[in-house]
Amino acid sequence: MRAYPTKCFSSSTSLSLHFMALLFITSLVLVSCRSILASNFSTPHVCRRVQPTSSLDAENRRASMLHDEGETPSPTAFFNEGDEKPDTKFVQKGTDKENFKGHKLRRIEEKLAKARYSIREASKIRNLTSTLQDPDYVPQGPIYRNANAFHRSYLEMEKVFKVFVYEEGEPPLFHNGLSKDIYATEGRFINEMEKGRHYRTYDPDEAFVYYLPFSVVMLVEYVYDLGSNYNLDPLGVVVKDYIRTISYKHPFWNRSLGHDHFMLSCHDWGPVVSSYVDLLYNNAIRVLCNANTSEGFKPAKDVSFAEIKLMDGEVTGLVGGYPPSQRTILAFFAGHLHGYIRYLLLHTWKNKDQDVQVYEEIPEGMSYYTKLRSSKFCLCPSGYEVASPRIVEAIFAGCVPVLISDSYVPPFSDVLNWNSFSVQVAVKEIPNIKKILMGISESQYLRMQRRVKQVQRHFMPNEPPKRYDMFHMTVHSIWLRRLNIHIQDQ
């Protein structure tokens, strides 16, 4: 676990920042109190919740189809015809204003139903190349679980999907994020949603989903006490007060109990911070780099988010690598001791083999990125948490990623067939890495390497975003989860 913020402060600065954080938390509580007083102590909309027609266990079983060897499911694995669909329904009293809003919600659900049908029909075409027209890009090849279904889903998203961003809260804890170093993808997503260039609507009644724009990275930087022995309660209090505020000021959280809301975090503590609000943890869509199923990540409702290390925040020069004939290293890794998996990898392979080059410290005069670009396979072991920026670094370098982890759900795996362009090695198989990689034929390696280059476009953090890049693919993953639920006002 990265148990420290990316920036250290002097004691006087730290005190002032803690005072700012305390003042901010107090203001949130006051906003909540004003909201209660403004409504003459009336409670928020009281809903009688009808149990979903399928259990969470059943949801997870269906979602697990996306990762089973030999299966080639499409995005419609979330809503196959005949399956029970997670159907979140609410019944509440209807004033004229509420009935008008209920009509808008029904229109949204009608659009979702049409999209489900279109995607389901597209999924029946099992061609490796999409049959749909597109001026920019036509998905094709085995990197996709179903190219036609994905393409139809993406086009349907572009046509109708809208996101409402709550405006409560003030920077730096809200509406802002670090766009450099290891947490860059979190900050870039927040900033893009704030700019409103894609998908954003300012009419909450038109929204399909609602974004909670708090930054766990910024909470850690400004609220977390370095001397508190990992006490995350202050971070949790901010999030609890924030959810309480929007639930009093707006009807949408209470209407769905959070099912159509999403948060996004690339910090290791994102899952823990979300656990301070039960409905956020259990119902809302959590977009997380730390996509660990053993720690509560649910693939049917949560989204795995790509982690990319951008030291200066720039994306230029990310993509490159030598042709396969000039890749003279079988496998490469360099990284500090960071968790049990890396301990096993370093203990087993450090300074042991020139084919499997494993370093704790990259030797002086040696270039980390040159090693990536000179290797056939790049080892991507989990650290204290499951996510690693090395996965995307490998893809950018044209190096076949070797995922060494347990319980990790790779990004966009509801659409991408990771088995076609990566190697997944169980932790217990670390001593057999060379044998496993040597067992991959040259022709199979060349196919995988070509697919790595093809999949690069889906992980590019472009500024501004381009169709099918990482920003749009992340939104598409959120779109798929929204397709998986049905919200009803009566």
From TrEMBL:
Record region (Disordered): 57-91
Protein localization: Golgi apparatus membrane
Membrane topology: Single-pass type II membrane protein
Exostosin GT47 domain ranges (all copies): 158-438
UniProtKB keywords: Glycosyltransferase, Golgi apparatus, Signal-anchor, Transferase, Transmembrane
Transmembrane domains' residue ranges: none
UniProt cross-references to InterPro entries, sorted A to Z: Exostosin, Exostosin_GT47
Segments of skewed composition (Basic and acidic residues): 58-70, 82-91
Main location: Golgi
Highest taxon of the lineage: Eukaryota
Family to which this protein belongs: Belongs to the glycosyltransferase 47 family.
Name by which UniProt lists this protein: Exostosin GT47 domain-containing protein
